[in-house]
Amino acid sequence: MDVYEAVKSRRSVRGFKDRPVEREVLERVLSAAAWSPSGSNIQPWNTYVMTGALLAELKTSAVERVAHGDPWDKRQYEMYPPMLGTPYGERRSAFGKERYSALGIARDDWEARQRAAIANWNCFGAPAALFCYIDRDLGLPQWADVGMYLQTVMLLLRAEGLHSCPQMAWSQVRETVAEILSPPDGLILFCGMSIGYEDPTVSYTRTGRAPLDETVTFVGD
After folding, report:
1. pTM confidence score
2. What pLDDT does 104 receive?
3. Burial grade of 128 (CB within 10 A; 0-12, 13-18, 19 or more)
4. Which of 55, 56, 95, 123 fits as disulfide partner to 194, beta carbons 3.0 to 4.6 Å?
5. Cα–Cα distances in Å, from 98 out to 89, 192, 202?
């Protein structure tokens, strides 16, 4: 699979087979992803990969917590600004509409929306999950470095025939994750990522992208 195909076929998959992901494949992907760029090569990502019984335990704990209506953990970073201006707010709203329409969920069906959201903490059935932390003392440029690293991981997973779904939702139950991973003090959980083989029986709608002239300005000849 060439780079263009990997980029265009990458998407946030929300339905996985229970087929295990081989450890050697994950090691190969993450070894290559270590070559992602970072300012002054500080490599600010701290990654944990979870599979098997421990992941099953985490899924159960997180799903039960959310299903019982327990309060979210206090955010360690702002997921979105309180007010999303144009065109970002419109894009976010369009995504939500497309997402729930594909699931056949009406806008005012709050219970169905909650059930769909809970699937996040079951990793959408994925047999492997990655949890990416960053040191709380690092700055915005290092958060950007982590983003480049995660994108590299996702593209390499596509090259291996795998799919993924990055999930900031895990930061809302970070204490539940920490009970199993026991990360060092000073690390912030940025996101989780479900990893596995796509279940083709799960329907989806591919979200669109803004036209090039809306996001890119060419200057010069």
Report:
1. 0.90
2. 59
3. buried
4. 123
5. 14, 23, 15
